[in-house]
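Hi, here's the filled form for the chain we discussed.

Project: internal
Contact: R.S.
Residues: 443
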Amino acid sequence: MPREIITLQVGQCGNQLGCRFWDMALREHASCNPNALFDHALSSFFHNVDRRYTPPQELSVGAGNTPIRFLKARAVLIDMEEGVVNQLLKGSLAELFDSKQYITGASGSGNNWAQAHEVHGPQFSDAILEKVRGEAELCDSLQTFVMMHSIGGGTGSGVGSYILETLHDAYPEVYRFTQSIFPSADDDVITSPYNSLLSTMALTEHADCVLPLENQALLDIISPKVTKPFDEMNSIASNLLLHLTSSMRFEGPLNVDLNEITMNLVPYPRLHYLTSSMSPHLAVSSWLLQLFTDVFAREAQLMKVNPNDSTYLACALLMRGNSCTISDLQENVARMKSRLTMAHWNVEGFKVGLCNQAAVHSPCSLLCLANNTCIRSRFIGMKESFKQLYRRKVYVHHYTEYMDVSVFDTASNMMDDLIEEYETLETARTPEHLVRLQPIMYQ
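And the returned structure, exactly as it came back:
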């Protein structure tokens, strides 16, 4: 049975990212579905509608041989301004969405987490839940919500936080993944340190898995000759989601479902931040070796962190393409494992996946998801940026119009605890009395 995913695009960044994601998702499925049939792979992100009826009739996936009539995205679009959503609804992807799937305001959130969370969140709460419920009712087996947003602005951070809290209460059994764009050190939103800290509190408490990305890291990966860098950055982020979900959409000898990501990569509930890297390019020779080497390189990370200087709590390696075998995966995992520092209680903490369906852009590609203590450095930087503003109470009055000042202190203490938890695992040493069991080989 297919498992469905509902995406929630929140704020300007989330909707721009979502626009690119749906374009790439359509291209990917078109490349491997020449007969235009509504199959199980398509049903994860789309539902099939026959508009010859009034009201339009939903067509089930059945045996996977139903012709495609009109595809609708399993998505809810939310923004407190109209510009980006209206642009999407007037573009080439307009037929993927209808009026039941989007909510827009007119005033914006003013780059203020408190205004978005305390005013716009409650104001649109019933409407958001109703639209989410409408999408959920069209699913046979809803597995995951995926929220796309940034944490440095207003709507993506504040309304995004409110939505996570609401989903936690309304759908406690459905996984909540987020693709969260973290602000860079030179972010042009002056209040982003406040928004980021407050949003991280919600991500820590209410998300099951967070995939953090950073604009500067994405910029460093793309070629300086690219004329539209933000399109390329959104393509990288979208490809991450397509790669992550490929095993649940397409066949392969080692399929990995999203629930297996949380099961294998999140050893502690609050420590669910997974750094990511991809290696989509082929080398001239020994290309498979190069793919595995590249994804662990600092330059390939989608955050400005260096995992090789820190401890891996767990790691997933997800391969796409039919030119790699299970033995190839095992051989390369063994090769790389000797170079990495794994937590002493999880030295075998690798989850591997192999999907036969290649990505559109490459015949063979590799995604690495790592629960690594290196994310601590990013949280330390976030806390320092917050302190630089907060010690002078700069712009605090804009926030205390909508919330009590103690919320800042709560979020700050939460961040300290989060940093300490990662630091404790980073500095942990293998107990001297630990004796590992060795297999007994019988002749």
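Let me know if anything looks off before we file it.
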